[in-house]
Amino acid sequence: MPKKKQHSLPEVTASAENRLFVDSNHPNHTAKDITFKRCMFVRVGLKNATLVKLIFHRCVFEDCYLRGVKFQNVDFTGSTFKECNLERTRMDSCGFRYARFSKCLLNYDEILHSLPTEPNLAIGLLKSLRCNAIEMGNKDIADRLLSRQIDIEQQDLRKQIWGPTEYYKEHYKGVDRLLSLLKLVRLRISGLFWGHGLRIMRLFISAVLLIVLFASLYQFFGTFTKANEIVQNNFPMSLYLSTVTFTTLGHPAYSPNTTFTYILCAFESILGVVYLGFLVAALYRKLSR
After folding, report:
1. Into which CATH architecture does domain 199-288 fall?
2. What is the pLDDT of residues 234-252, one digit of tens each?
3. In 38-50, which positions are buried (b, 16+ CB within 10 angstroms) versus exposed (e)?
4. Maximum CA pair distance of the chain?
5. How far apart are CA 105 and CA 180, in angstroms?
6. Residue 206 and residue 265: Cα distance in Å, rounded?
7. 237 near 268, Cβ under 8 Å?
8. Helices 175-194 and 200-221, packing angle to 10 deg
9. Reduced to 3 DSSP states, what percent helix, strand and coil does the chain have, rounded to the nearest 5?
10. What ranges do the domains of the chain cover?
11. Is residue 99 helix, strand or coil?
12. Is 259 left (phi over 0), alpha (psi -120 to 50) or beta?
């Protein structure tokens, strides 16, 4: 494969395609109304530069120093950034459709101001930014990006279900709307029970509420036996039985006496196992910080 000829950035005044820009430094450089297609920028420095109405279509930036650059109406559709420094950048009306970031120092707030309007593209960009934040050890930013991603997913799912525009009415019908409803319910339950893994305290609170709920059901509708004798169900006893059932510890001296009580115990035990999985996952996320 022939080696690409290296070019200098200032020499481009209108457009460039399939060009290689490498090992060049242009601080305070100003460029306007230029289109770059499938170009590669390697170790290019543009500190405090001003770029206005530029198009970077499917370009690759590797180890570039773009700190303090002011981007105005710059389109990065399909571009990839690897190990670049984009701290303190300012981005006004920029486009990041299908853009990807890996191991970059970023000004996340500026990029979030330029999220694509299409939900699927916005979610894709947020996933890439979140992976970048995890790679760089920015766990708090990664959690914030996850929350933003889930909010957009829920908004899009609601549109798929209710079809507020002709686009959604044409593309989501019958089974598709039902599947979207199930996805939305799953996200809502995940957020309610444990905040999508971001809020451990909510997990404990919801577990306590479930234990109390099942204790109330045992008190009014369930019956247990001990040594072949029916146990008088008061709330403290029901709360104890609910706790040992939810935590899957069990108690060898007590056993359900009716089919309905058996079903309640089995269902609560399943919920306890599910909650244990949630707890392990949430603690792992917390300790991995």
Report:
1. Orthogonal Bundle (1.10)
2. 888 889 889 999 988 877 7
3. ebbbbbbbbbebe
4. 94
5. 35
6. 18
7. no
8. 100
9. 50, 20, 30
10. 1-118, 199-288
11. coil
12. alpha
Pick the closest to residue 191 from 153, 163, 161 (CA basis): 153
pLDDT at 127 over 60: yes
Distance CA 6, CA 120 (A): 36
Give helix 235-246 / helix 200-221 axis angle, nearest 10°: 130
Tens digits of residue pLDDT in 45-97: 999 999 999 999 999 999 999 999 999 999 999 999 999 999 999 999 999 99
- Structure confidence by residue, pLDDT tens digits, 107-117: 999 999 999 99
User: 14 phi and psi, to 5 degrees?
Assistant: -130, -55
Q: From CA 7, how far away is CA 25, in angstroms rounded? A: 12
The CA distances from residue 162 to 42, 131, 167, 181, in Å, are 47, 32, 12, 10
Query: pTM higher than 0.85 for the full model?
Result: no
Domain 1-118 has CATH 1.10.10.10: no
Tokens 């894709």 belong to which residue? 124
Q: Could you tell me which residues come within 8 angstroms of residue 165 by beta carbon, excluding any fewer than 6 positions away?
A: 159
